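[audit] Reproducing an earlier prediction to check determinism. Same input, same settings, fresh worker. If the tokens differ from the archived copy the diff job will pick it up downstream; this log only records the rerun itself.
[audit] input (684 residues):
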Amino acid sequence: MDDMKKVGNSSCNDGLLLRMGLNDNKAGMQGLDKEKINKIIMEATKGSRFYENELKKDQQVNQRIERMMQLKEKITTQQLLKAQLQVDKLVIELEQSRNLSNTIVHIDMDAFYAAVEMRDNPELKEKPIAVGSMSMLSTSNYHARRFGVRAAMPGFIAKKLCPHLTIVPLNFEKYGKVSKEVREILTEYDPNFMPMGLDEAYLNITEHLEERLNWPEDKRRFFFNTESTIEKDKGEVNMSAKFNEDGYSSSPILFEDNTPLMDDHPQQRDQSMENSVVFGTSAEEVVKEIRFRIEQKTQLTASAGIAPNTMLAKMCSDRNKPNGQYRIAPERQAVLDFLKDLPIRKVPGIGKVTEKMLKALGIVTCSELYQQRALLSLLFSEASWRNFLDISLGLGSTHLEKDGERKSMSTERTFSEINTAEDQYSLCRELCRDLAQELQKEGLKGKTVTLKLKNVNFEVKTRASTVLSSVSTEEEIFAVAKDLLGTEIDSVAPHPLRIRLMGVRVSGFLSEEEKKYQQKSITSFLKSGKEIAFLRLQPGKSNQEYCTKNSEASPGGSFFDKKRAARQLNSENLSPNETVAKEDSVLVCPVCNSEQKTTSLMSFNRHVDVCLNKGLIQELTEKKDFPTKTCNMENSNRVGGLSRGQQCANPSQGTKRSGVTTSQSVSKKAKSCNSKHTIEMFFK
């Protein structure tokens, strides 16, 4: 019985160590005394709320593992064989879709917050420091990492590991300014680069590499800064901007593992241009150039990964940290060789919970992930096991989300404890203000606002609310977040809500199509007839004469005016080859559903314009000229009729439609005659 207890306690301790102990897969933490560090962590946390919360989470994970192992015992050999066949069939499909044609770069600033603080306060350079508070750290420098101090660790534990640790308060305004400087450089290599927080970004430099092949040497030449920004008053040369004799960066910010940026350029040190460096045209050279420019501009170093997709690039950037870079060649075998012995915890998206569950199945490396692919397909959800399969094959995204395609944007703060409603609402407004600035900078609006709270017991709650109209301003976001926060405050009353983290997120962004066609109402879509005047189509007159806009119309014009004008402008700017569609193409009007006997896109666009506004034209030009007739059900495939003799399509079509509308409301007639022509049909 005692032995059973010992085994149980041992298992419990192992689980907690996996959650709370040293993650030596993190950059700067290799080769440390893991056992000693873990012992200090456990002693420092035992009995604390943090410890109790981690213990509770670990027990929940253990229950999941127990259920998984019970399911595993029930799997028959036949089921496993069948699964193996199905998964292997999928592997063949995935291999066929493997894309090695893109060059993706992941830029990761080294110990960013800590590096900024050391740059601005030279006294901190040789000391172990962390940025954050006694409650939670955001990052640590590489001196502190030698003691096991890391990001997302409570400051009080870090102090136990490193008693002489200096903890510097967060200063997001300062970090944001430096981040902006880095982004200004990155946008020159990929205007559509994808930032990930303040200190990371993904770039696709495929197009840049093609253009760069034709660049002269002068365009690839960059000069060293000769003025110091740290010790300007002393008139000393900024050594962070220089390379030593071996061609290695000598940054004062980070103390070791500097990677050569100029080792392939002995000819570049000629006497005439000794204060400059010329970079080559390869991917490695481009990334060296980016890192060089970042250091020259900010006095901070960055690490980088170069690979065929985002997942691999992220893992590569961690390979030679700090101040280094690594590339996986765009070849299938090179990708598989890189992954062969890679620990699963090094993979983005695999955290301590997934690591523990996979470890229970004997899976520790990416190659083992592939070997157990059939079993994983029977034990995990489809989304999970397919993700594991992608990881094991080294398949990832080559698509960098554009601003309009982002799923969400958020900001959050960690602090010691806030327990008054006044302070909580004040912080909430501050977060909403920061988030609103970022949203408006990116031109984004979202319909879902989420509030994230972590209490003093380290329990995390998220509450979301979806509104009818998209929000982007401080007041709009705060109005929703304030209600969510108020509900949480009321839920614990009369006790105070004691929190140590708050975050606000906006998601549910409008798609590009929704942005394009967003409107308040159908009446704002089809504005007053006074804004548009049409000339009757006369024999021998062109379509352009027929669709003439009134010179006295409103300068802004209606939505329809702008769309029609844009289409006409595009058509007029097209070359003859672009204006004419392929001979075998069939152009069908989305309004009257009739096939057009023209191959001119300009004529077709005008036909669609006319069809859309038949009723409006009739009301404006024929209101008193023709007798009223009832709507014929035979004509139900059109929105409104033109008078007999008026032509619906362009003259080259050669067909006419008969029938007239009443002088009553066109919109009512259109609705009664043709209910299927909804606004959705129009936008198709």
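[audit] rerun output stored. Observation attached for the diff report: The first helix runs from residue 2 to 20.
[audit] end
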